[in-house]
UniProtKB/TrEMBL annotation:
CDD domains: NHL (cd05819). The keyword Lipoprotein does not apply. One of its GO terms (cellular component) is extracellular region. The keyword rRNA processing does not apply. InterPro entries: 6-blade_b-propeller_TolB-like, NHL_repeat. Residues 1-27 are annotated as: Disordered. Pfam families: NHL (PF01436). Keywords: Glycoprotein, Repeat, Signal. It comes from Rotaria sordida. This is Uncharacterized protein. It comes from the Eukaryota. NHL repeats lie at residues 109-145, 209-245.
Amino acid sequence: MDNTNGQVVAGGKGEGNRSNQLDRPTDMLIDKETDSLIICDRGNRRVVRWSRPSGTTQEEILIDNIKCWGLALDDQRSLYISDYDKHEVRRYQIEDKNGTIVAGGNGQGAGLNQLNFPTYIFVDQQQTVYVSDNNNHRVMKWNKGAEEGIIVAGGSGKGNALTQLSYPHGLFVDALGTIYVADTVNDRVMRWPKGAKQGTAIVGGNGEGAGANQFNGPFGLSFDRHGNLYVVDCWNHRVQRFSIE
């Protein structure tokens, strides 16, 4: 594979709302069952599916009229979408257009049953929903069927102490319940062991900058099967890879 040149697999026809266009997409995932891409087409307020094998240049609209930011798919192929306007996360079954609220949905706020601009989400095998609760500077954990969430990272106000986050975005939770979160305005990625009162900056945390150990607005993050961490370094216009101990 030539890894120096990318291939356009969705959009690429400029910003717009036609069926072959996207507008400021924020998240995507691969649905292996249908070999398709599911994309949060944020600027167009819709979640769309692009088929991969057919090489199609057109999309299928799955959910319309939603101010989406983050996406997740569970083992039963239920789709989870964060809505930063309604301050909630909903779970959708295949062909379901309405969904069920699984986090937030009680208006904008800082209560344990509320969210304030939820961005990225992560869903584990127990259908527990983790949410980067951006404007509350915390990560929330909502167990399946829960009426309110649990603060599992941050929640001590905006700041750069090890007990704090500042506008968190990208999120990953491992099998032990350890949380990895892109602490965007603090230009670091935090690791928060299950039950811990504070986190550790595992990469970044060296001030805003373009050095190999710095970020300028880390947004998305992901791990590969070898345990390497990949971070979308937004305002440095790059993706960085780190080997994590």
